[in-house]
Structure to design on (283 residues):
């Protein structure tokens, strides 16, 4: 999906992106399919192909192998919910066949234009993503409102509310009571732009979502409010993130508890800004 893959290109991790929906690829998903010559030439260029496509009948693999790449590795389409292994470890497993046995399982992404976390003399910026791909993963909007009111009352932080179509009007409703000079809404931006803006923040609060993983990957300290997902598999893979959950579910997480965790995250982030050793470690 180019919208997501653009993150990898912007971060210097890939040289080229091609859409899986490209018409010329259709034949690769059929038994003994008629494969477009330009795609046959494309796949034949590579010494190693690593595929994470959902391919239960092996049709894509069989057709790509007809293009005679030197080696074809197949990774899991989706990490299993059982077994207690984090998704990053499962996704790295196919590399063991290439004798890459100790790859770093912590995603890291450095995007151009991320800039400094804050200008001199300006209060730190807290990024907030009050949504996710599923309502069951979302903290109640009233709890977000109470948290943001406490942030305004107890801190000098500014707030960047991040979201897209899935959040509906939630960003505007949460932003409305906040002082204009201390809040900003970033809606519907590309993931590259979101990643760049997150990189300018000091800390982050969100749910079990892709934006939370993006915040962790660009180096933010933060808090993830956790719902029904399996934490051992899907939590953000960052020592700078705290996962908060309650036996009563997301609604049982107290905004005061979240603010306390964010204060610790923000303090660690601000210390990190001032510590050359920490900055070198993050790079």
């Amino acid at each position: 999906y180019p919208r997501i893959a653009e993150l990898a290109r912007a971060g210097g991790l890939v040289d080229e992106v091609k859409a899986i929906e490209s018409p010329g690829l259709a034949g690769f998903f059929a038994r003994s399919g008629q494969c477009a010559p330009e795609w046959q030439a494309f796949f034949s260029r590579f010494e190693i192909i690593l595929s994470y496509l959902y391919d239960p009948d092996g049709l894509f693999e069989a057709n790509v192998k007809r293009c005679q790449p030197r080696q074809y590795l197949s990774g899991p389409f989706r990490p299993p919910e059982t077994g207690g292994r984090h998704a990053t470890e499962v996704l790295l497993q196919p590399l063991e066949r290439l004798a890459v046995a100790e790859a770093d399982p912590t995603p890291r992404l450095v995007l151009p234009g991320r800039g400094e976390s804050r200008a001199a003399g300006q209060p730190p910026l807290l990024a907030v993503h009050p949504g996710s791909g599923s309502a069951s993963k979302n903290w109640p909007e009233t709890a977000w409102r109470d948290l943001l009111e406490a942030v305004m009352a107890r801190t000098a932080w500014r707030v960047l509310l991040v979201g897209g179509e899935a959040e509906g009007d939630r960003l505007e409703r949460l932003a409305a009571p906040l002082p204009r000079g201390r809040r900003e809404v970033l809606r519907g931006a590309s993931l590259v732009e979101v990643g760049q803006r997150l990189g300018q923040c000091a800390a982050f609060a969100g749910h079990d979502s892709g934006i939370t993983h993006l915040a962790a990957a660009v180096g933010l300290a933060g808090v993830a409010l956790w719902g029904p997902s399996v934490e051992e598999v899907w939590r953000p893979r960052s020592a700078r993130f705290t996962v908060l959950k309650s036996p009563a579910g997301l609604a049982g997480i107290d905004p005061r508890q979240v603010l306390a965790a964010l204060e610790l995250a923000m303090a660690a982030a601000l210390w990190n800004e001032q510590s050359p050793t920490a900055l070198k470690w993050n790079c």
